[in-house]
Write a structure and sequence with these properties.
By secondary structure, the chain is mainly alpha-helical. The protein has one domain (9-63). It is 74% helix and 0% strand. It has helices spanning 9-32, 36-64. α1 (9-32) runs antiparallel to α2 (36-64). The longest helix has 29 residues, at 36-64.
């Protein structure tokens, strides 16, 4: 079942740097202070980032598809 709300390609694009900054901070924190729960939280965040990028990819593909127009 597809979600009913789909964010715009632009809103997905604009959040990419923020996601990257958060992931980078979590990676540094895990490096400095290794901890199993931090590793688990980072893995969850990485999966969320993966899903975000896949949604962005889908929005780009959808936007690139030609719109069917009736021929006259």
């Amino acid at each position: 079942m597809k979600p009913t709300f789909q964010p715009s390609s632009e809103s997905l694009r604009l959040t990419l740097p923020e996601i990257g900054d958060r992931l980078a901070a979590q990676l540094v924190e895990l490096h400095k202070r290794p901890d199993a729960s931090k590793a688990e939280m980072l893995a969850i965040a990485l999966d969320g980032a993966r899903r975000h990028v896949l949604a962005y990819r889908e929005s780009l593909v959808t936007a690139a598809e030609p719109v069917d127009r009736p021929t006259v």
